[in-house]
Amino acid sequence: MAHLLGAEALHLEYPTRVVFDSVTLGIEEGDRIGIVGRNGDGKSSLLGMLAGIKEPNSGRVTVRGGTRIGVLDQADTLPDDLTISAAVVGDTPEYEWAGDARIRDVIDGLLTDLPWDAEIGSLSGGQRRRVSLAKLLTGDWDVIALDEPTNHLDVEAITWLAAHLKKRWSPNSGALMVVTHDRWFLDEICTETWEVHDRIVEPFEGGYAAYILQRVERDRMAAATEAKRQNLAKKELAWLRRGAPARTAKPKFRIDAANELIADVPEIRDTVSLQSLAVSRLGKDVVDLLDVGVTYPTADGGEKVVLKDVEWRIAPGERTGILGVNGAGKSTLLGLIAGTVEPTVGRVKRGTTVNVKTLTQRLDELDQYWKDPVRVVISGLRTSYTLGAGSKAQDLTPGQLLERLGFSSAQLSTPVKDLSGGQQRRLQLLLVLLEQPNVLILDEPTNDMDTDMLAAIEDLLDSWSGTLLVVSHDRYFLERVTDQQYAILPGPDGAGHLRHLPGGVDEYLRLRERQDAATPKQTATAAATATSSAAAKGLDGAALRAAQKEVSALERRIQKLTQQVNAAKSALADHDQSDYEGLGERMKKIGEQQAEIEELELRWFELTEEIG
How far apart are CA 214 and CA 199, in angstroms? Predict the structure, then answer.
């Protein structure tokens, strides 16, 4: 493979610290490199130096003659008075850019919901970010450098971006460097991972899953002083190996080594103990949404139906991820559960012991502490916090919790206003947890977090007993901390409807793809497309009808079993908590029903694939 660019003896320092010391690297044609590391260790600085937009204090970066490098950094440099069309394609005539398949793909993937002639100044921060990304991707580059490209993108756009980058060049041409905390994205597109730490850059073969395995091996062989970090990485590896087999089945991932490393690692969550404790804390009833709908008045005097016919009985200990495009009604749904939004129709029933707390995207919880040092903030909080259940329960002080969330002793003297965005976010989570809620809502909790800190937060949530609801565009985090997913999808009437996703995020993406291909007014076209797709797969009309009938039957059976499981979980509250044998039998039956649900969902998944 041909050499594209290289760095020799790079040294970078600021008045207070040295960031890099004599770093030497090379990038070849075909490289797809993910850059990871703790916030502040220099990931963006490294990317900037390699891309030629930041000068090192010493050392040099050499680029092969004629190599074109495209960069997306975190700065917003688009002029407010520029239109989207001018920003993305400039003054290129329409017949030229419209005839370019790559440009059409970029526009369809990132900008279909934005008016082509809208001015940049009228867009939100997330929309401006998408325009900047589209502007870069429509160009012709040999090397693309991306700094946090998934920020402000939803699950669909992130999936599209991964697919675009995978097919943009042939396997042995072009090169990609990407800084991101999105671990699914890293695993999907990268063939090499660079970890930035301690003034050096350490390369690892493969994507994120392979990197985690090699890092655990490195830490173990070094017998290091990083025991805590190693244990978190081993735990995450156990989930990667057990919970995401498709991801870890790549040839580059050494299965035998992984199995040996996780042989003594327990399941990531003690589900039975956590479920029992959740029931004892919450009782049988948590929050029931009964035939709920929400309507808002519009500026023109009309009404907009945001949610309609929502029926959801949330069980104690349930861990649910919620998906949906921006504006679908996710915040409204969370407001109904938290009690900050009242339904227009239907009713919301809450258990008497329910205590709901929400980690919002804002930092409102920190306003009153803005000028206070961290140690002053935690001094006024409860003296201990119980984590885990049963024999694994432990009482931690706020200071110990802060340590688990990555705070050093020196940072305890730092005023809240001077903390980084990720540190403020972690302190906000601590304040929410110390209120000891039994229903926790996390609204985009991964913002400003590096991959190591995300693993630490996931580890903390593994020991949290209660009902957990998560809204996140970070697919890896969503799949890691929740056991099931729901989506808010627009129905033919335009209102948002809540739908269970037996097939998880993949099913959500397929459903959204079909909705995009057929607007609500094109139901006949959608049906014809489904029939034609089924025919292409060898299904005649009778077989298609039989498959559709079986799908309907499966959905009814899955729904019935799910209700039975939820009822059985709620009934645990009435059972004698000292009767361990009886509790064990009930949990065994619940486990058998859940196993049946999984089998039915697998059959449902196969049939929907056949039907298309």
Answer: 20
In this structure, are residues 509 and 161 in contact, taking their beta carbons and an 8 Å threshold? no
* 16 phi, psi to nearest 5 deg: -100, -15
- CA–CA separation, 369 and 184 (whole Å): 35
Q: Look at residue 253 and tell me whether its pLDDT is greater than 50.
A: no
Question: Could you write out the DSSP letters of every residue in 122-178?
Answer: GS-HHHHHHHHHHHHHTS--SEEEEESTTTT--HHHHHHHHHHHHHHS-TTS-EEEE
Q: CB-side exposure of 156: number of CA atoms within 13 Å? A: 21
Answer positive or negative: Cα dihedral of 247, 250, 253, 259: positive
Q: C-alpha distances in angstroms, 116 versus 108, 112, 131, 217?
A: 12, 9, 11, 51
Asked if 381 contacts 365 with a C-beta cutoff of 8 angstroms, the reply is no
Intra-chain end-to-end CA distance of the chain, in Å:
40
What SS3 class is residue 396?
strand
Q: Which residue in the block uniquely carries the two structure tokens 């490289």? A: 31
Confirm if 6 and 32 have CB atoms less than 8 A apart: no
pLDDT in tens, 383-412: 776 666 555 667 778 788 788 777 877 788
The answer to whether 193 and 203 are in contact (CB under 8 A) is yes
Q: Output the six-digit token pair for 58.
A: 């010493």
Alpha-carbon gap, residue 594 to 564, rounded angstroms: 10
Best-predicted range by mean pLDDT (90-94, 275-279, 586-590): 90-94
Q: In angstroms, what CA-CA distances link 338 with 286, 437, 442?
A: 11, 11, 11
Which one-letter amino acid corresponds to residue 80? Answer: D
The amino acid present at 443, given as its one-letter code, is D
Cα distances (angstroms) measured from residue 279 to each of 36, 203, 228, 432: 39, 46, 31, 21
* Token duo for residue 158: 């992130």
Torsional class of 341: left (φ above 0), alpha (ψ -120 to 50), beta (otherwise): beta
Neighbours of 84 (CB within 10 A): 25
Q: What DSSP string runs through 109-127?
A: HH-TTS-TT-BGGGS-HHH
Mean pLDDT of 538-560: 73
The CA-atom distances, in angstroms, between 518 and each of 80, 268, 524, 544 are 34, 41, 9, 20
Cα–Cα–Cα angle for 355, 358, 362, nearest 5°? 155
pLDDT higher for 526 or 35? 35
Length of the chain, please? Answer: 612
Give the whole-angstrom CA distance, residue 15 versus residue 481: 40
Q: Are strands 32-37 and 192-197 parallel, antiparallel or unpaired?
A: parallel
Mean pLDDT is lowest, of 148-157, 289-298, 520-529, for 520-529
